[in-house]
Write a structure and sequence with these properties.
Number of strands: 9
Oligomer: single chain
Strand content: 15-25%
Largest sheet: 6 strands, parallel
CATH topology of the largest domain: Rossmann fold
Length: 283
């Protein structure tokens, strides 16, 4: 049996645990999460284990990336189940700070980025979001000092934002994306999927099917504007209210007008009932 992970909840405890890892000249990987772990998170952990000798998983529901109207209070929290899953995977250390540890009284610093963070995708609908993400991830990187960190491609714009931030600030961590894990019917795994009613869950895979159909048409030489409009219509017919469905350059997130400007990524955010889902695929 593997040893249970060390759990650190204070910065001194985290530093002691990390010093213990570093004395053995370990390479350290970080998997940042907000808990409510599913198979997608576990895929990040397994990729981390292939790349580093020690794996740290952070579990922190970050209030700075939620607007007052969003689901911070109801965001799923499954601590015991999360720890059991991470123990089964042989994770070495869980970093589980509380809000006062991450944002103590008088905290007054934010990391604000441009570039991918101002691409007109998530930032257009959630203008507060990336300031909260970059601030907490920047803190996690400086606290844990990982050699490499793993993020899922489902949050594709976030992956690009964090990658740019780490590079621009010389944080010494290689940010690595991991392919989106999907249910058998194609729905991207997400902690928020638990919010879906049975009827909404049955309709939700239409998001992925519409993206796949759109990508197929584009690869066959179809008109980009028409293909995107038809993809949006498929999502709407399935019960989604579409915030955006965009074709963007996969590296810069700049808008594209044809496949010749690629590589191209299709990105979507849409609501079904009260649940907002995001997803993306390469075209």
């Amino acid at each position: 049996m593997s040893r249970p992970p060390v759990i650190a909840r204070t910065l001194p405890a985290l530093r002691r645990a990390l010093d213990g890892l570093r004395t053995r000249k370990a390479t350290v990987a970080l998997v940042p999460t907000m808990g409510a772990l599913h198979a997608g998170h576990i895929s990040l952990v397994r990729q981390a284990q292939r790349r580093a000798s020690k794996v740290v998983v952070s579990i922190f529901v970050n209030p700075a990336q939620f607007a007052p109207t969003e689901d911070f209070g109801s965001y799923p929290r499954t601590w015991k189940d999360d720890v059991a899953k991470l123990a089964a995977e042989g994770v070495d250390l869980i970093w589980n700070p509380d809000v006062k540890t991450m944002y103590p009284p008088g905290y007054a610093t934010k990391i604000l980025t441009e570039g991918p963070a101002s691409a007109g995708l998530e930032d257009r609908f959630r203008p507060h979001f990336f300031g909260g993400v970059t601030t907490v991830v920047g803190k996690l990187f400086t606290q844990v000092r990982p050699d490499v960190a793993f993020f899922g491609e489902k949050d594709f714009q976030q992956l690009k934002v964090v990658t740019r931030m780490a590079r621009d600030l010389d944080l010494g961590v290689k940010v690595t994306g991991v392919a989106t894990m999907r249910e058998r019917d194609g729905l991207a795994m997400s902690s928020r999927n638990v919010y879906l009613s049975p009827e909404q869950r049955a309709s939700a895979p239409a998001l992925y099917r519409a993206m796949k159909e759109t990508a197929k048409r584009l690869r066959a030489g179809g008109d980009l504007e028409a293909a995107m409009a038809d993809g949006t219509a498929l999502m709407t017919a399935a019960g989604f209210a579409v915030d955006y469905f965009e074709a963007r350059h996969a590296d810069t997130l700049a808008p594209v007008t044809s496949m010749k400007e690629g590589p191209v990524r299709l990105l979507v955010a849409a609501r079904i009932g009260n649940t907002r889902l995001i997803d993306n695929i390469g075209a």
